[in-house]
Amino acid sequence: MTSSPESPQDLLKLAVEVAEEAAHLIVERRRGTITVADTKSTLTDVVTAVDRESEELIRARVLQARPDDSFLGEEGDDVVGTSGVRWVVDPIDGTVNYLYDLPTYAVSIAVEYGGETVAGVVVDAPKGEVFTATLGGGAFADGKPIQVSGATDLSQALVGTGFGYDPVRRQVQAEVIQHLITKVRDIRRIGVGAIDLCYVACGRLDAVFERGLNPWDYGAGALIAAEAGARVGGLNGAPVSPEMSIAASPELFGPFHDLLAAANPLRA
Ligand code: IPD
Ligand code: CA
Ligand code: CA
Ligand code: CA
């Protein structure tokens, strides 16, 4: 761990303030009509004006308070600063839920120092639930400590996952799901990668996996899950990356990983 000249708690405080302000904005905007403003990697990969407005708000607030920091946002902001601190932001995680008014979507902010995530916040905007963590400082939901389920039996595990927008990856995902569904209690597709990880952190899911998540999807949630006692990683000892993210109650991680590896998700 690179020691930060500033306190992760101070970084978290700003992250929470800004994430709550953005969460309030996106919930307010949802009272009006939400339409697709643009598509990105594929026709199903949509963006709304509110995704962009939320990112603008977060960038403005963060860089106003900390002008020397770097800032990476899903909707295109990539500011390179000099302080060693980088903010990695998903202004609406769960845009498709947001578009359809399904009441689970989030604002996710991870704060890195020297490339390592030291603080993270995920705000479930419609619910107002706030998940937080600092490196070595534990994980919390609405200020109360949280921990993983402690599940040990894969056959009784409730597993979360998601599907990216890339059709080739979706084909692989379909095959993996087919392999998995008879070996676990059940599978949930909530539609919000950051929330999936927070749900492992607080025991609402026993394990999650997804291929194709980006740092703004998993940055905060991976820290929150790890600080809640989850084992978090990729395939074959790799760290979490866009290639694969897995988080699970510690005793489940090994068998869950092996099941995913046997389903051969590396083919695409
Ligand atoms: C998506 C959500 C979804 C996951 C996708 C992500 P977005 O993020 O987290 O749950 O399955 O892979 O891209 O586009 O709604 O911010
Ligand atoms: Ca996302
Ligand atoms: Ca997003
Ligand atoms: Ca998106």
TrEMBL record:
Keyword Metal-binding: yes
EC number of the protein: 3.1.3.25
PROSITE patterns in the record: IMP_1
Pathway: Amino-acid biosynthesis; L-histidine biosynthesis; L-histidine from 5-phospho-alpha-D-ribose 1-diphosphate: step 8/9
Domain of life: Bacteria
Binding site for Mg(2+) 1: 74, 92, 217
Key words of the record: Hydrolase, Magnesium, Metal-binding
Residues that hold Mg(2+) 2 according to the record: 90, 93
Reactions catalysed, as given in the entry: a myo-inositol phosphate + H2O = myo-inositol + phosphate; L-histidinol phosphate + H2O = L-histidinol + phosphate
GO molecular-function terms, A-Z: histidinol-phosphatase activity; inositol monophosphate 1-phosphatase activity; metal ion binding
Required cofactor(s): Mg(2+)
GO biological process, one term: inositol metabolic process
Membrane-crossing segments per the record: none
Family: Belongs to the inositol monophosphatase superfamily.
Described function: Catalyzes the dephosphorylation of histidinol-phosphate to histidinol, the direct precursor of histidine.
Name the record gives this protein: Inositol-1-monophosphatase
Organismal lineage: Bacteria, Bacillati, Actinomycetota, Actinomycetes, Propionibacteriales
